[in-house]
Amino acid sequence: VNTALELLEPPGRAKAPPGLQRGRAGPRAAGAARRRKRAPEPGRNKATVKGRVVKSVIEEYHKKKPVNHLRENLQYMLKGRLVADKAVTEQVLAQNRGRKSKDQPPEKTEKKKPEGTVFTEEDFRKFEREYFGIP
User: Fold this and answer.
1) How far is CA 88 from CA 20, 74, 119, 130, in A?
2) Cα 12 to Cα 6, 8, 24, distances in angstroms
3) Consecutive 10-residue runs of the chain (135 residues): their mean pLDDT?
4) Which parts of the sequence are annotated with region: Disordered (predicted)?
5) CA dihedral (76, 78, 82, 84) positive or negative
């Protein structure tokens, strides 16, 4: 007498007893299964409030609020009025400058001052009188 299940499975494909199943070695498989699913330890339930310290929301807000250091920084900057020598500042700037031509400052050419005349306004009037004959 054949049952309905035996008719559906092809011959020679019946289920093997649990000890002879492929891919499972008795004691090793049990250890792997135990490692995968661990029984929850007592006292580690995170849903309970027991043992928690209640934090004040206001304290947390004040702790995480950014602090403005502007006033202290301004006092610090205005306190020191020591100015370094021009030669020292030029040396530091030269050390930090790159070697490329775009990093080099443009060469400063000294502007030639217009040469003043040796003659004064009186000399010009005297010359006009002598040359043009104007009194």
Assistant:
1) 88, 25, 44, 59
2) 10, 12, 20
3) 54 57 57 63 67 82 89 89 87 85 82 79 88 74
4) 1-49, 93-120
5) positive
